[in-house]
Amino acid sequence: MVSAAQGSRTVLVTGASSGIGAALARALAARGDTVALVARRADRLEAVRYDCLPTSPDTEVWAADLSEPEAAAHLALQVWDHYGGFDVLVNNAAVPMRRHVTRLTMAEVERTMRINYFSPVAMSLAVLPRMLERSAGMIVNVSSLGGRLGITAEAAYSGSKFALAGWSESMVVDLDGTGVSVKLIIPGAIDTEIWDQPDNDAPLYDGPKEPPEAIAAGIVDAIDSDTFEHYLPDMKAIIEAKTSDIDSFIVGMRGLGGREGTEQ
Question: Can you spell out the DSSP letters for the chain?
Answer without folding.
Answer: ---GGGT--EEEEESTTSHHHHHHHHHHHHTT-EEEEEES-HHHHHHHHHHHTTT-TT-EEEE--TTSHHHHHHHHHHHHHHHT--SEEEE---------GGG--HHHHHHHHIIIIIHHHHHHHHHHHHHHHHT-EEEEEE--GGGTSPPTT-HHHHHHHHHHHHHHHHHHHHTTTSSEEEEEEEE-SB-SGGG--TTSPPPS--S--B-HHHHHHHHHHHHTSS-SEEEES--HHHHHHHHH-HHHHHHHHHHHHTTTTTT-
